Amino acid sequence: MKQLLSTLKQINHKGYKAYKSIQGHYGYTNFNLAIDYVQGDPFASPSKIRMIIPAGKRPIKQEWLKTYSRKIATEDVIARVVGEAVTNQVSTVKGSGKSGLIMFDQPGQEKLERSAVQVNSSSITICMSIGLPANGRKINGREAEKLFAQALPSIMNSSVFTIKDEEIEQANILADQQDSIRQQMREHGWIAFLANGSILPRESGISNRPLKDAVAFQSPLKNEVELSIPHSREPIRGMAIKKGITLIVGGGYHGKSTVLQAIERGVYSHVEGDGREFVLTDVDAVKIRAEDGRKVSGVNISPFINNLPHEQDTAYFFTENASGSTSQAANVMEALEAGASTLLIDEDTSATNFMIRDHRMQLLVQQNKEPITPFIDKIAQLRDQLAISTILVMGGSGDYFAEADTVIRMEDYLPFHVTDEAKLIMEKYPLERSAADAGTSFGDVTSRYFHQRSLQTKKGKRAKVQAKGLHHILMGKTDISFAYTEQIVDSSQTRMIAEIIQFLDRTQRLQDTTLYQLLDKIEHQMTEKGLSSFTAFPNQHPGDLARPRRYEIAAVFNRMRTAVVKQ
To answer: What is the pLDDT of residues 457-472, one digit of tens each?
Structure first.
């Protein structure tokens, strides 16, 4: 540290590029500092640093790392405390541009594998980005000394070194309980579990925190199950949703979509206090919706759409501007191609003509003039032939009662089991509509190969892929937009997908590998080598990445305007 401060004095008032001389490693009292990257000017992307705390300075218990979930929970606790310390930092480091800026990748409500904090048996590594102080484009050495000698040590001393073992152990207990519930779900054939007492509504459309004074979830008796969980004498009770076809019905503003939104987020585990700690979903569940205007590249949508005008091939379907029905058909087929086992659908975000054609419309528009086989006529084939479950929010069409295994009615944010009632209605008022000619089988889920030319990362002479918020990636000169991919929850996941694209471009790994196989390889590398293994400098600062699911990676690939595919 003394060497670093001495260097800062020497380069004070020099041109900003002289900061390059501080790149390297330095020893502090309680931690080591690595300055991995120095920005080129005060207005450029911030510099990247790591603080490495040896286990001798902050002991790490081996049981905190015993399982993947425990490790993520341990890192999550540390990340939240560090994030709070960065937010509360009072040291004022002045200067032009981004001078004195301290950035840290703070977690949201979900517990995700992140690169911002990495814990192993020998050390804790904290990654941050900082703005090195300047006056104009000259180094402000005195402010830099404040940054390195005061601000950063203050953040570390008020975060990592204040965490009590009990806080980490409590997070480990919750991780064990969530793991146990997921294991029991697999054993019993459940695709979702919602614990009694859960708080499902969120604070607002822009806040993912629990709504105060919300109605707590309470399972209907017919759907209620009891589970024993570790570290608890009392069992946990809640609603289990079995494999098959489940309808969630009810009037407007009674909580149907709120339940589905909690279920779609249940593919991730949540932190204590979120209200959805014990709302857990099949990790291979994918939210499906209509998406007018998206590109579709070589997808087999023939299970749903055939006999288009001009004899367009729907077994190998391309369009630059998909309609609501073709986009939703493509979204279903792409999810199946990537490995989904559960589909989550809300009629509010679906194309009506994809979901159903009623009796009167069938009378007016003859079957041989209608290219769409609606979802209602394929949903049972998905269940029976492909073992694909569906959870469907439906408020406008009771025809789906005929296909449902379970019907849940929401009233004032409380669920009621009404399956028997729905079946009696079907007996009293049989379907008027005729099932479309859906064939005897669902149809083929076709594998595709993405050509390396799909990754057009060059912008001028340089390759550049950059995340722009939660739902955009700028790949070279092309904007990849995936605004309706609702299960991506953190912009750090988007940054990770951008890194994956750059990695695949550097290593030429697309040819002769199906998309499914490619996703397997990506997941294997993330698990075995870590998130940073996809970056250009894996042994340095990878501090603002979070692990995405394979389905969101696939969603980005499928929305590339530059995609070149073959089957």
So the answer is: 998 889 999 999 999 9
